[in-house]
Amino acid sequence: MLHYSVVFLVIALIAAIFGFGGIASGAVEIAKILFFIFAIMAAISFVISLVRKS
Question: What are the residue ranges of helices labelled H in 1-54?
Answer without folding.
Answer: 2-17, 21-53
